[in-house]
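Example protein was shown:

_____
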Amino acid sequence: MEEVIIATKNRGKAQEFERIFSKFGIQVRTLLDYPEFPEIVETGSTFEENAILKAETASRQLGKVVIADDSGLETDALNGEPGVYSARYAGLEKSDEANIDLLLEKLEGVPAEKRTARFRCVLAIAVPGKETVTYSGSCEGRILEKRRGSNGFGYDPVFFVEDKGKTMAELDPEEKNLISHRAMALKQLKQTLLHTLEG
């Protein structure tokens, strides 16, 4: 079985990648499997810069094919916030609940039609000795005033997908993996990855 390392310590993200890649007989490992691996400081100002930084750092140190994802929420009424700061919006301790609370507080009084937002994901695949390639995907929606649903992670409970009439947190994992920003980026990356592993 081929192995790919995902440069994350986020269990929610790890499970999404595992579900998507298991169909291709690809075993997913993450930085949780390397407890001594130091935290990669995300110094980039864009999702692309952070994804490349994480993928190349981990690939160089581990000598393996590494996929890194940098993703987040862009809210139009807040000029794209929280953007690259999505995971640490409310502070460095990275609390999903605190992040949602801060987002809802900042959007207080903003009418439904102006609460448009999108999840954006950039995936970088770093292969030892080759140039790093990136792929991006997005998923449009709007931010509700209250949480709904218990699936997913991050901002999923307040991110409403119009086509589905549900929040991301109300979708079952299989449904989410068909429409999510990460799934869109992964569709593009998949062919490169399979070609790389075959090669």
In short: Strands lie at 2-6, 26-30, 66-75, 81-82, 116-126, 133-143, 159-161, 166-167. Residues 65 and 130 are 10 Å apart (CA to CA). DSSP finds five helices and eight strands in the chain. Helices lie at 11-22, 47-62, 96-106, 173-179, 181-198.
